[in-house]
What we know:
Number of domains: 2
Mean pLDDT: 93
Low-confidence stretches: none
CATH class of the largest domain: Mainly Alpha
Order of helices and strands: HHHHHHHHHH
CATH architecture of the largest domain: Orthogonal Bundle
Distance between the termini: 17 Å
Strand content: under 5%
Helix content: 55-70%
Radius of gyration: 18 Å
Number of strands: 0
Number of helices: 10
Shape: globular
Amino acid sequence: MGPCRLRPLTDGSHFEFIARSIIYQQLSTKAAATIHGRVQALCGGALSAEPLRRLPDEALRGAGLSRQKLGYLRDLAACEAAGTLDTRHFPDLPDEDITRQLVQVKGVGVWTAQMFLMFKLGRPDVLPVLDLGIRKGVQRAYRLRKLPEAKRIEKIAAPWAPYRTVGSWYMWRVLELDATKAA
């Protein structure tokens, strides 16, 4: 695979990244991109708390958001407005504090928080042990018979510290190599 090409996403705000993550949950990439684009347009081009709070439910539902995701986005905007989600200070906070804030938002779990840490903030030592791609990558790279559980992955990945994000990136690439061989 060569050198790690993982770079933090610098476009958009932290709020936008989290909102986009919520919109993309459990949808095909194409459908999610369409809905995301529509919601962005309704917000004036950039997803932010204030436009999301002001827009009527009907407009956001018309853009393709489910009631559940609409609720999640409303909660995200409310948390940002109330200051319980302080995204401006995220670059200065430890991973645990960021994760603690993010999982307070409805629709945001530990996995989403880990993806935020890895892909938006570029944190070097994140290991998403429950990610299916990581689990499958570790299984293939380490020639394990069974899909490894979180504890086993933590043990295997201990030598990767303090660069477990990079190790995770390579585990995802292992799956790409297998797909290339199969094609």
